[in-house]
Amino acid sequence: MNYYDLITSRMVLDTLLYTMSELGKYNDDVKSKIKDYELNIQFSVEEGPVEYLEIKNNKIIFERRKKAPDYQARIHFNDPNTLFKILRREQLNFEQLKSEGKIILKEEPKFKNICVDLMNLALPYSNYNYGDELTSQDDYLLAKTLLYGHLIGFQEITEVDENVQIEMKGVNVVIQFNVINGPQCYFHFKDGSFSGVMDVQYPDPNVTITMSDNKSAIALFSGQGNASRMYLKGDIQIDGDYKDAMKLMNLRELVVEYQDYVRTKSRSSVKF
Predict the structure, then answer these.
(1) What band does 263 get if pLDDT is binned at 50, 70 and 90?
(2) Please, what is the angle between helix 214-222 and helix 136-160, to 10°?
């Protein structure tokens, strides 16, 4: 698997599984699907990432790169292109994909269709182009998912990209993101490394970036909005060192490049 496919498949899979875990908190359909279930689900990509979801106590738990001792259901994508192309769909026929050899789908009989149902419920949140049709709760979840996607993007890129590591050498900056009536998180760039935490207000960040609402966050983090124009309109407010904020915005372009790579691959000639 090439460099771009490896990084983007990690970003896509992690964000999709995070979406499922968040849907378990807010979505009634998902809550009913997982009620009284207890199982681990393995999700994997050929020569790429392997991740797990745990369903327990009526919750969906996702911890990035945490291994499970065993699993009762599995979805394996035989190449990253199949994973990327699911982002263009709102519903998938997994039995067809299985018969065509694009995925491996295994479930214990008592857990039949749980993987498919969760994937299909999460897929619409991977399509960033229909935000106007979303409810306020969906806006919140999509903004949170996109914010998490950038967090994971920075995590992956700073782990493997030497140019980014060199550029961030000696930098120690905490940037807090707050969306009014929406999610929050902070990014910590420290001497070439990166860490980030969702749902937390850092006590003393160097920069706080506040977005006026969830739709503004969706526009910014999906790449549909222009950060400079949004700042001039007042949709984005920056408190703290403006230079640190601009450094983040420049690095954000790297994440957008990976997002664009996924979109290009998802529109390729490979068909389902």
Answers:
(1) low
(2) 40
Sheet holding 193-198, edge to edge: 193-198, 184-190, 172-179, 207-211, 236-240
| pLDDT of 65 strictly over 80 | yes
- Which 8-state DSSP code applies to residue 64? T
* Residue 21 Cα distances to 63, 146, 185, angstroms: 10, 14, 17
Pull the structure tokens for residue 138.
């969906």
Burial of 232 (0-12, 13-18, 19+ CB in 10 A): exposed
Structure tokens at 68: 């499970």
Q: What's this model's pTM, rounded to 2 decimal places?
A: 0.88
pLDDT tens by residue, 69-105: 899 999 999 988 888 877 666 677 788 888 888 888 8
Calpha distance 5→43 (Å, rounded): 16
Q: Where in the chain is the domain with CATH 3.30.1050.10?
A: 3-127, 132-263
Q: Secondary structure of the chain: what % helix, strand, coil (to 5)?
A: 50, 20, 30
CATH code for the structural domain at 132-263? 3.30.1050.10
130 contacts 202 by C-beta, under 8 angstroms:
no
